[in-house]
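A further point concerns the way the authors explain their paired sequence and structure data. For illustration, here is how one protein appears when written out as sequence plus structure tokens:
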Amino acid sequence: MAALGVEVNVANDEGETNTAVNVPESVLRRDQARLEEAERRRNVKESQTVKEEKSDFFTSTFNAEKTAVEEMLSSSNISDRDKAAKTLEEVTVRIQQLQKFLNDSMLFLAQYEIRQAQASMQKLQSSLDEKRDMVLPKKKFAFRSRNAGASKQPEPCKQTPDKSASDVGGTVVVDAAISVYQCGFSNAENQVLIMQAEEIQQKDVLLSHLTNCKVRLYGCPSTLHIKNVRSCEILCGPVSSSVFVDQCTDSTLVFPCQQLRTHNTTATQIYVHVTSRAIIEDCREVRFAPFTWTYPGIHDHFKVAGLDPDRNNWTDVDDFNWLAAGTPSPNWTVIPETERISSWDFVGPSKKTLM
């Protein structure tokens, strides 16, 4: 059977056209495939060049800002508490902005670059916490009597960034007199704790030393810190930046956020809407599911927080203690759909204590 071909006119050196040459179609297809492959490689090279340029820009910008924050921390004068508190407040804002810059750059960064940047962010946060402890010493929490305190709704901790620890007066501070924790609840058992949108709007919230409590935060804080909680159910509206969880046991946490960082946590369920990624470290028996809580006004709060309600990377979890590529971490799992909670108990302003 004759092979199919295409006639091609061939010109001589003087421009005169000679007899047509029959070129097999298979040869033409190979030539076309070569041209397409060359075009594909050129596009890949151009794309790689753009990606490398973006990566270089991120690295230089990130390192410059990181260095500036480190210099601010090292130069803060611990003898002038008012000035130091303001400096720490500015450092906190710049760390949040740097974290957002990292989150927005993750689409074009390599995994090792992301891990290096996340490690740097963790060191900055640790340095900030250490500096707070130096500048603003701990102030002990105390009730007039243990029994009387247990029967009352704990008062939210409401601090302003421009006050030093000595100016706070009767305000309760736990773990450290940290000025950037502008509101929250601490040292409570068997209680329902509620804060409305106007109380937490774009503020840093601290929840610490809680046992067997139900917490409802109807609003969009800037940052949420959850420390030393046991057997609690904590539901919060959209968080503009990060949620930090530490020393949490046998609890259920529900919130949307930009990034989640969880440390030293065991036997805890996390229903999360996270637009970047979740990070766990030194954790065991942590289970994840998508965010399922709703309340009047939550859609507006998503907009205020700057979170995309259609983008949820709740299964994108990095375990810093598990580096085996291709093998799932044994420290976290996904909650089966049949076990997920889709409807949460209503907790209104009139409900003060657990039944």
Observations:
- The helical segments are 25-75, 81-105, 111-135, 146-150, 197-200, 298-305.
